[in-house]
Amino acid sequence: MKKILVTGGLGYIGSHVVVDLQNNGFEVIIIDDLSNSSMDVLDGIVHVTGIKPIFEKIDLKEKDLVTDFFRRYTDVDGIIHFAASKVVRASVNDPLKYYENNVISLVNILKELQGSKLPKFVFSSSCTVYGQVDELPITENSPVKEVGSPYGNTKKIGEQIIKDLCSCDDSFSAIALRYFNPIGAHVSAKIGELPIGVPQNLIPCVTQTAIGIRKKLSIFGKDYPTPDGTCVRDYIHVVDLAKAHVAALNRLFEQKKSDNYEVFNIGTGKGSSVLEIVDAFEKVTGININYCFANRRDGDICSAYADTTKANKILGWKAQLSLEDALDSAWKWEKSLKKNL
Description:
By secondary structure, the chain is α/β, with parallel strands linked by helices. The chain has a domain at 3-182 and 236-267: NAD(P)-binding Rossmann-like Domain (Rossmann fold, 3-Layer(aba) Sandwich). It has eleven helices and 13 strands. The protein has helices at residues 12-23, 40-49, 63-72, 88-93, 95-113, 150-168, 202-211, 238-253, 274-285, 309-315, 323-339; strands at residues 3-7, 27-32, 54-57, 78-81, 120-126, 174-179, 181-183, 217-220, 232-233, 235-237, 261-266, 272-273, 291-294. The protein has a seven-stranded parallel β-sheet, sandwiched between helices. A two-stranded parallel ribbon has the order 7-10. The two termini are 38 Å apart.
């Protein structure tokens, strides 16, 4: 049984990946500092899988704590690195926090791996590294431009750090997954997106409006050059996204790599506007969403959706669940949160 370290494993995406790893026979160790997550998520993972992963509360910015962890766990076979601050707007307001948390944490981990039997490494990257592209859909060969936010820049820097390490150390191999917009929740409604404070992502704002937590949904911008004037994104079910991480790990373990460092887009290949998401949610749930338009937000780009051909052919992975599946699961998750209050 291979042992996989998942940093940020109690977060939204990380928790779903932990579930899929355990369902596929991997042993999991979670590191999380609980700055944007809750220990309740661990209970949800146990409920879904029947297995309690090892949990370590560690702030990865603290180098001594990272060193101590790897001294105690010398048999880690693979690492999936999620731990990072992730809100575009917040990164614009507090860029130093984002550079400190997202870059230093990554460097601290990688420094501990040098000179040892290097585990396989999967990096949680983002389509934000592309910035606003000139041509859609976005392929892995699309230029990586100047990004629109410090958050996106930390992902771009993180990729370059990993790529540089792969170039100088032939024993180290890594895959960066550039994923688009994860939404939805596990079918059990035991784990899902759990924003602390005011949600920054669209779907929690939609579900919180539908359930009455928020009076109305604010749609930021109605004058983008899109068919209905609202931003377009590639929304992927988080359960499909989780499966892509297992596929990436298996590729590394099976040594099928074409290079020490590989990059894959993870999305559905279809873009949906904010208004299309609201309309789809209303059709799935039968609930009308009260919304209003607000000014554009700093750091937001107009349109982004993926060309997933490379992931489909090389990783053998493809998104299977529909937008309606994702929205339905997100609504069930929101209702379960209210029920448990």
